[in-house]
Design a protein that fits this description.
About 20% of the residues lie in helices and about 20% in strands. It is α+β, with helices and mostly antiparallel strands. The chain has three domains: about 150 residues, Beta Barrel (OB fold (Dihydrolipoamide Acetyltransferase, E2P)), CATH 2.40.50; about 100 residues, no CATH class; about 220 residues, Chloramphenicol Acetyltransferase (2-Layer Sandwich). The strands form six sheets. Strands 11, 14, 17, 18, 19, 20 and 21 form a seven-stranded mixed beta sheet that branches. It has a four-stranded antiparallel beta sheet with strand order 1-8-6-3, with no helix packed on it.
Length: about 475
C-alpha cells in the first residue's frame, strides 16, 4: 500500500507552530480531497485544516492538545491498494507504516494553501515526543501504538472502584486524560460510566464537582451532569483543593499577544493623550438611528459612530495613518484604513480589522462590525482578518473602565481607547446639567506622529462625537 503524509502547514504568515484542538477523523476513516480533518489553534486564530488527497486514515501522529511545529507530519493516509489499517483507539496514533512506505515523499505542490498563505519552506526543529507505550507482546513499537481496547464480546471485570480489575490503569481516551490532568483529578478515583468501563468527560467533570463540594453526595453514574463539548483553549484549569498556585501554559493567542505587546512597547516610543468630552448628542443620534426603518436589522451602537468619527479624523489628518519601515528606513503612508477592533474572546484578546473601512457607508460599517464581532465570538477569525491593520479601537468602556493607556499593535501608528459613557454633571450652556460624558485615550508612535498631529487627530474625533452633524458636514 502507499502511505501519504500530511504535514502541519504554515496557516499564517510567520507562524512556526500550532496546537491540535480537535480531530474530526480517526484511523480507518475514509477521507476525500478538501475534507477538514482537524482544527488547530495558532498564535492568532483557530483554523480548520483540509487534507489534499483521498484515502483511508492510517495514523494520527499527535493527540489533541499537542503543540506541533510547522512541517511535522500530523496524519498519514493510505492512498494505494492494500489491506485496511488496524484501527487505533480514538485520538491515538496507529502503528507506523513500513519504512519504505512511510518515507515516500508527498508530491510537490499538494500541501494546501490556507487563508491566503503558503507553506513555510524553512526547516523546523522537532520538539521531543513522549515515549510510545510498549506493545502488548513486550516488544518496543517504532511509533505510538493503539491503546488496549475492551473485548467486543464482554466488558472487562470491574473492581470495587468501577475500574478494570487486575491493577490495570483506568481506560480513557487521551483528551479525557488531558482534561483530568488539567483539573487535577486522579483517573483511578473516577467512577467510569462509558461502555466497557471507559472514563468519559462527564465522569471527570462529576469527579471535579465532587472534589470542590465534598459535603455533597457524589452523583450516581447514570445521572452524571452533562459536560461542555470541549474545554476552552485558554481556560484556566480548576484549582486543586488546597493548592496555593495554579500554572497555566503560555501558548496560542495569549502567547502571541504577549510577544507582540512586549515588542511594541520597547520598539515604538509611545505617547498617550487624553480628552474628556460630552457625547450626549451622539447618544441621542444612536437612539434616532435605531428607530430609523432604513436601518432596521442593523446593529447601531456608540462604537459604530466612534468608528465613523475615527475614519473622518483620518481623512482630515492623513499623515497619522502610517507605519515605520525600519529595514528600509522609510515612513509608509497608507492611503487606506484597515480599522482594527479589539475583541475579547475565550482564547484571549484578538484584533481583527475591517478592510478598507474608509470606503464604507454607515450601514456597511455596521454590517462589517457585526460580522467581525460574531466571527470573533465563535472563534472563527482567520489570520488574514488580523493582518494588515493600520489603526485600532479598543472599547474598554464596556467593562466599566473610564480609560486606559493602550499599547500599539505592531506596525500600526495609533490606537484609541474608548472609556465608559456615564451621566455626569457637566457645564452645558452656562448651567450644570447631567450629560453623557466619556474619556478617550489616544496612544501613538512618536516616530510617526508628533504632538501636534496626534493632538489634532484626537481633537477631531472628539469634535465629531460632540457635534455628530459633522459626520455629514466633514464627510
Amino acid at each position: 500500500m502507499t502511505i501519504r503524509e500530511f504535514k502541519m502547514p504554515d496557516v499564517g504568515e510567520g507562524l512556526t507552530e500550532a496546537e491540535i484542538l480537535k480531530w474530526y477523523v480517526q484511523p480507518g476513516d475514509t477521507v476525500t480531497d478538501g475534507q477538514v480533518v482537524c482544527e488547530v489553534e495558532t498564535a492568532k486564530a483557530a483554523v480548520e485544516l483540509p487534507i489534499p488527497f483521498d484515502g483511508t486514515v492510517h495514523a494520527l501522529l499527535f493527540e489533541e492538545g499537542t503543540t506541533v511545529d510547522v512541517g511535522q507530519v500530523i496524519i498519514s493516509v493510505q492512498t494505494g491498494p492494500g489491506g485496511e489499517p488496524e484501527p487505533a483507539a480514538p485520538g491515538v496514533a496507529a502503528p507506523a507504516a513500513a519504512p519504505e512506505a512511510a518515507e515516500e515523499p508527498a508530491p510537490e505542490g499538494r500541501q494546501p494553501v490556507l487563508v491566503g498563505y503558503g507553506v513555510s519552506q524553512s526547516s523546523t526543529k522537532r520538539r521531543p515526543r513522549k515515549a510510545a507505550p510498549a506493545a502488548q507482546n513486550g516488544t518496543a513499537a517504532p511509533a505510538a501504538v493503539p491503546a488496549p481496547a475492551p473485548a467486543p464480546a464482554a466488558a472487562p471485570a470491574l473492581n470495587g472502584s468501577g475500574h478494570a480489575a487486575g491493577g490495570d490503569r483506568p481506560l480513557a481516551k487521551p483528551p479525557v486524560r488531558k482534561l483530568a490532568k488539567d483539573l487535577g483529578i486522579d483517573l483511578a478515583s473516577v467512577v467510569p460510566t462509558g461502555e466497557g468501563g471507559v472514563v468519559t468527560r462527564e465522569d471527570v467533570h462529576a469527579a471535579a464537582a465532587a472534589a470542590l463540594a465534598p459535603q455533597a453526595a457524589a452523583p450516581a453514574p447514570a445521572a452524571a451532569p452533562a459536560a461542555p463539548a470541549a474545554v476552552p483553549a485558554q481556560a484556566a484549569p480548576a484549582a486543586e483543593p488546597g493548592a496555593r498556585e495554579t500554572r497555566i501554559p503560555i501558548k496560542g493567542v495569549r502567547k502571541a499577544t504577549a510577544q507582540a505587546m512586549v515588542g511594541s512597547a520597547f520598539t515604538a516610543p509611545h505617547v498617550t493623550e487624553f480628552i474628556t468630552l460630552d457625547v450626549t448628542r451622539t447618544m441621542k443620534l444612536v437612539q434616532e438611528l435605531k428607530a430609523d426603518p432604513d436601518l432596521a436589522g442593523l446593529r447601531i451602537n456608540p462604537l459604530l459612530l466612534i468608528a465613523k468619527a475615527v475614519l473622518i479624523a483620518v481623512r482630515r489628518n492623513p499623515d497619522v495613518n502610517a507605519s515605520w519601515d525600519e529595514a528600509a528606513q522609510e515612513i509608509v503612508l497608507k492611503h487606506y484604513v484597515n480599522l482594527g477592533i479589539a475583541a475579547a474572546t475565550p482564547r484571549g484578546l484578538i484584533v481583527p480589522n475591517i478592510k478598507d473601512a474608509h470606503t464604507k457607508t454607515l450601514p456597511e460599517l455596521s454590517e462589517a462590525l457585526s460580522a467581525l464581532v460574531a466571527t470573533a465570538r465563535d472563534g472563527k477569525t482567520s489570520p488574514a482578518d488580523m493582518q494588515g491593520g493600520t489603526l485600532t479601537i479598543t472599547n474598554v468602556g464596556v467593562f466599566g473602565v473610564d480609560t486606559g493607556t493602550p499599547i500599539l499593535n505592531p506596525g500600526e501608528s495609533a490606537i484609541l481607547a474608548v472609556g465608559a459613557i456615564r451621566l455626569q454633571p457637566w457645564v452645558h450652556k452656562g448651567k450644570v446639567k447631567p450629560r453623557h460624558v466619556t474619556t478617550l485615550a489616544l496612544s501613538f508612535d512618536h516616530r510617526l506622529v508628533d504632538g501636534e498631529l496626534g493632538s489634532k487627530f484626537l481633537a477631531d474625533i472628539a469634535a465629531v462625537l460632540e457635534q455628530p452633524r459633522r459626520l455629514v458636514t466633514w464627510s
